[in-house]
Design a protein that fits this description.
The protein is mainly alpha-helical. The protein folds into 2 domains: 84 residues, Orthogonal Bundle (Rna Polymerase Sigma Factor, Chain: A), CATH 1.10.1740.10; 85 residues, Arc Repressor Mutant, subunit A. Helix content is 72%, strand content 0%. α2 packs across α8 and α4 packs across α9. The longest helix is centred in the C-terminal third of the chain and has 23 residues. The termini are far apart.
């Protein structure tokens, strides 16, 4: 009901309604785009573009999913188009997931690693080194604790695809952290 009231207010051009919509969803928009683009200036421009598109196409919103998901989809597609124009690969071409997993030291524990500053710094660096889509999915799922179903609505990716990206990203992080830090745990 809150979504419907806000959308109705924006469409009726109620004073401050669109600004309220922006305030409500600017954090989500910034997070989705910045995690993919990683340039504050571009992120700012792309967030503005996202909200222009939201305003322009708000009449097309059908309340089939939460407004948050719909706006997240627009932010995601704006970021994807930006990266495609710049010819930045959205995902790794290497998808040998299971073979890589066999090489991972199973004793490596990411939760225990978070307690050590050196490992936290290395983990952040490796997350930032991920391609845009896996990096964004990983942070939405683990840092923002967004459920896979919600991520699927935002990105328009199948839940299985998201799970696969998360699995491969975790495997890549384990492999790289194990190689980077060796037995230093």
């Amino acid at each position: 009901m809150e979504d419907r009231a806000l959308v109705d207010a924006v469409l009726a051009r109620a004073p401050g309604a669109f600004e309220r919509l922006i305030r409500e969803y600017q954090g989500l928009c910034w997070h989705v785009i910045n995690r993919m683009v990683r340039d504050p200036e571009d992120t700012r421009d792309l967030c503005q573009d996202t909200f222009l598109r939201v305003h322009r196409h708000l009449r097309q919103y059908r309340f089939e999913s939460p407004l948050k998901s719909w706006i997240g989809q627009i932010a995601y597609s704006v970021a994807v188009r930006h990266l495609q124009r710049k010819r930045i690969p959205l995902v790794d071409a290497d998808t040998d997931g299971p073979r890589v997993v066999e090489q991972i030291a199973s004793a490596f524990d990411l939760e225990a690693a978070n307690a050590q500053d050196e490992i936290v710094v290395a983990l952040r660096a490796e997350i930032e080194a991920l391609p845009p889509v896996p990096r964004m999915l990983l942070t939405l799922y683990y840092l923002d604790e967004m459920p896979i179903g919600e991520i699927a609505r935002v990105t328009n990716l199948a839940e299985g695809t998201i799970k696969s990206h998360l699995f491969r990203s975790r495997a890549r992080l384990r492999e790289r952290l194990t190689a980077r830090l060796g037995g230093h745990r």
